[in-house]
Design goal:
8 helices; mainly alpha; Cytochrome Bc1 Complex, Chain D, domain 2; 0% strand; rod-shaped
Length: 237
């Protein structure tokens, strides 16, 4: 191989290197992107740690006594139709995907005969008095999975206060002896007790003294009391 051919080969290699290097520079200029300040990607809609700990939903639920104060059982029948795909509501009704809901209020949790309850519902039944009281029903219907961790119930819940109150009022009617409605808790007394009534003008505030009003002092417009004249002695017989 003579020097001329060697020069041609060397020139070709240099040309290829130049093209590749120049192309990479151009591509970097065209498709350059700024690096983020912090590595990683933000996931839109991801739950915060606090929300994740509560199942991604708020635990604030309107008190059940407030709901039932204006609830309508007849309107609750329309809400109950959402339940009928999985539950029966008649006395002695069959278990379906879920247990029969007759006489549900104050019924012991996870005890309906013939139904296989989830482990989560059985664990929930062991808490407190173990009955479906008004407060438990209110929270469970609001968010089943938020209230009973591990429940097999797939229903998302009823967040609307009026609809939930109407449904609770209707569930109460599914009984031979409907349970008493809950009462609102009395407002706490003001700190320090009720304020003492103001003493009337002219009365003493010392409980150890006579509480009768004092006679007005002379010179204040009132006529001072005159001493009584002793009776004259009777004449000697």
């Amino acid at each position: 191989m003579n020097s001329f051919e060697a020069n041609k080969i060397f020139g070709a290699v240099l040309g290829v290197v130049f093209v590749l290097f120049g192309g990479s520079l151009l591509a970097e200029g065209w498709f350059h992107s700024e690096l983020p300040e912090k590595p990683g990607y933000a996931i839109e809609g991801a739950a915060t740690p606090a929300a994740a700990a509560t199942g991604g939903a708020s635990n604030e639920v309107t008190p059940v006594a407030q709901l039932l104060a204006s609830a309508n059982a007849d309107a609750g029948l329309a809400q109950f139709k959402k339940c009928q795909a999985c539950h029966s509501g008649e006395k002695g009704g069959p278990n379906k995907v879920g247990p029969d809901l007759w006489d549900l209020v104050e019924r012991p949790i996870a005890t309906h005969e013939g139904f296989a309850y989830s482990a989560g519902m059985k664990a929930y039944a062991a808490e407190g008095d173990g009955k479906w009281d008004w407060d438990k029903l209110n929270h469970f219907i609001h968010g089943p999975k938020d209230t009973v961790k591990g429940t097999a119930m797939g229903f998302a819940g009823i967040k609307n206060d009026k609809d939930r109150g109407d449904l609770l009022a209707y569930l109460r009617t599914l009984s031979d002896s409907p349970k008493a409605l809950p009462t609102a808790e009395a407002a706490p007394a003001p700190e320090g007790g009720a304020p003492a009534p103001e003493a009337p003008a002219g009365a003493t505030t010392n409980p150890g003294e006579d509480s009768q009003p004092q006679a007005p002092a002379a010179g204040t417009g009132a006529t001072p009391a005159q001493p009584s004249t002793p009776p004259a002695p009777a004449p000697a017989p």
